[in-house]
Amino acid sequence: MRDKSGQVTIFIIIAIVIVAVVILFFALRKPTAGSEQIPVALEPPYVAFLSCLQDDSFLGIEFLKSQGGYIELPSFEPGSPYMPFSSQLNFLGTSIPYWYYVSGNNIQKEQVPSKEEMEKELEKFIEERIKSCDLSSYSQRGFELSRGEPTAQVSINAGSVDISLKMDLGISSTGENILIKDHSIVVNSRLGGLYDSAKIVYQKEQDELFLENYGVDILRLYAPVDGVEMTCGPLTWDAEKVFNQLGEAIEQNTLALKTQGSSDDYFVVDAGINQDVRFLNSKNWSNNFEVAPSDGRILISSPVGNQPGLGILGFCYVPYHYVYNLGYPVLVQVEDSGEIFQFPVAVVIRGNKPREPIASSAEEVAIPEFCKYKNTIIDVNAYDEEMRPVDVEISYECSETSCYIGSTYQGDLKAYFPQCANGKITARAEGYEDASYEYSTINSGETDIVLDKIYPIAVNLKVDGKNYGKEAVISFISDRASKTVVYPEQKTIGLSQGEYEVQVFVYDNSSLTIEASTSQQCVSVPKSGIGGLLGLTEERCFDIQMPEQIISQALVGGGKTNISVLDSMLKGYDGVEINAESLPKPTSLEQLQLNYILFEDKNLEVDFN
User: Fold this and answer.
1) 95 in a domain, yes or no?
2) Co-location of 568 and 489 in the same domain
3) What is the pTM of this model?
């Protein structure tokens, strides 16, 4: 009996092992279709189908990461000369929707996708792509395949993307067939975690405007904003060079920003996330830099203290204050384990200050109430002086409120204007002078605008008949615009036909020294105690010390005259020669002031050649 019992035990153990092996075999076989096992002979086309599903899902996820959470891009909205941002940033050939931007008509907008919207986009993408899965090679090998309509369901998680696809897929071959309805895969991707971190960085920017604050710091470090310099000569800057320097500084300093590092590091942005974040900008991307006041492309600040009647000062100084409007893109890239999620934002600085944060999408700011109500259709035709169509940007001004209207196509724009009596239509185009016409928009109508072409003219300056190679400021001033060059650094000026007053200030090196001095200034102040309460005052005097000042440049020539410039002159001549008279080289502050008096009576010879 003991032998028989031992044999039964052995058989039971063997049976258990066989059952376990069978269960393990079926459990490890792939793929499966629900509870129904796929015959081995029908596996190859189904494995290929799952590969298509995997590839399509991976491609859709890459689109979401590289296009700011979008697969299908939102409707494109172009920018304008006043606000260069379109609704999308072109980065290495990829169009990425801005999460925050300012539209061409000056409206702040957000287009941040939700995770649910991303899931819906990926579902739609998979449903469209899976229909094109190429299984023709299996049909040629004798498999019969049939497909139904796909319905996808996507769940984006921190470290994976789960995809379930309901789609009837029939496979048959050599007497075997199967209908598979449910298909599921898991894609290892950090899309969800990257998106969550991107939202945190974006919200920090919207709450704190840290990119704008860095931009203001860059502006004050690399451009003339506010200041005073002790000099008797004018301070001049070329706005184009200032903007180029600003563009390079913004590009380099933006790239230096990071979210990891010591809190004492100026460039560290504490976003409270573990992933690495890069901030990118390129000076070649669309941007908008403006500065006022300016004389054309030249920033000029004149000295105080060398004019007649100010000799009591005993010194010269040049105060300056310039107001900038800046707009440029920054691309934010959140990276983790080699995966990158990216989105762009517009950085906007107005009047040397960061923009105001917005509380909701499409909030209207800084757009006058008058501009919101455009209800009169006007047809505007723009031409050059030879009546050829010119494409221009049109704005309309009423009671010092200006509204951007749009741009012409082949010289024509038919658009709605806000109603105004005796408003002003302004047309702007590169290479032409701005043209403004008074026009009432109470009723619909049509108007023509003619723009004068700007011609580049070479400038040659002479003093007392001899070519001059030192510094001079040359201005052509008209009722429409003022054109200035700093000679000899700039020797070309853009002119159009019109009446001009030409002014030339000629400077030379100077060793004039204004000695240090002390002067006394007295003011009346309220008396202390009860006397002050009764309105009694007393005189207090203060010593004001002026340091020694060396005047490195002094006015040594120049003058002014009025000329008429015809379009035929600009077309027929390449240059203009200006001959100015010299003034005595000053040896004292009084002589310097006297030169400014003599300047008023000096004439100029201006010849086009």
Assistant:
1) no
2) yes
3) 0.71
